Amino acid sequence: MEIMTQGTAEKYFTPERISIDLTFKVKDQKYEKVLSEGTKSVISFMDEVLKQVGLEKEEMKTRSFKVVEKMKSIKKKEKNQYGQYDFEQVFDCFEFTQSANIKFDYDLSKMTKFIALIAKLKTPPIYALTFEVKNYDEYKNTVLAEAFHMAETKATAIATAARFKTVKCIKTNFVPFEEKVTSASILRSNEMMMFCQEDTVSVADNIEKTFTPEDIHISETLYCLFKAE
């Protein structure tokens, strides 16, 4: 007799690594000034935040760097032949943008210190702080093993009810898990700045006392064909 069963398993894991995406932005009418001020904002971050939390500048990996000319739409004073106002593109400013990423082992005190220090910068970067596991294949396999055990348990129960003694898996079918495993928790600069404006130390302390993420979620469904004998 052949028995087809489905096993589904899901687990939540504690983060092992913190990943921070940064974007430095500066605007000005002059190219030389926007380049100078943009570079200063990056250097200030390295000196006043990165070093203070015990990280080296080499640990901040640049993803992109550019200075672009931004344009804006201006409505013309005169109407066109159809009685409508046309718009023209005129120079607005130069914009400096540098994107970077930092990863370090999960450390709550280091994370809260980072949040407190970055709020004090004159020109703070935009950031999004997320949490990851290092070897997600290992965690995925753990969940798959549990899913298989559940499918096997169901098949054994069905075989026992039908008076068969053993079951043997002869085929499995599942959609491979290919997503990046990250936490559902995201700390964004625009949200954190609102809380850090008055007392950065107490905010950091409160986060450290209450924040214990265990929300890296992995779910797998496995379909198994068993032969009962």
* Structural class based on helices, strands and sheet pairing: alpha+beta
DSSP helix fraction: 25-40%
Large-scale geometry: elongated
> Oligomeric state of the chains?
single chain
Q: How is the biggest beta sheet arranged?
A: 5 strands, antiparallel
Rg measurement, Å: 27 Å
The poorly predicted ranges are: none
Number of strands: 8
Order of strands, main sheet, comes to 3-4-2-5-7
| Count of alpha and pi helical runs | 5
The proportion of strand residues reads: 35-45%
Q: Could you tell me how far the N terminus lies from the C terminus, measured between alpha carbons in angstroms?
A: 7 Å
The average pLDDT score comes to: 86
Helix-strand string: EEHEEHEHEEHHE
Could you walk me through the main structural features you see in this protein, from its secondary elements to its overall organization?
With 229 residues, this protein is of the alpha+beta class. The protein has 5 helices and 8 strands, in the order E-E-H-E-E-H-E-H-E-E-H-H-E. It has helices at 31-50, 108-118, 136-161, 189-196, 200-210; strands at residues 2-13, 17-28, 60-79, 85-105, 126-132, 167-173, 187-188, 216-228. The strands form 2 sheets. Strands 3-4-2-5-7 form a 5-stranded antiparallel β-sheet. Strands 1-8-6 form a 3-stranded antiparallel β-sheet. A hairpin with a 5-residue loop joins strand 3 and strand 4. The chain is elongated. The mean pLDDT is 86.
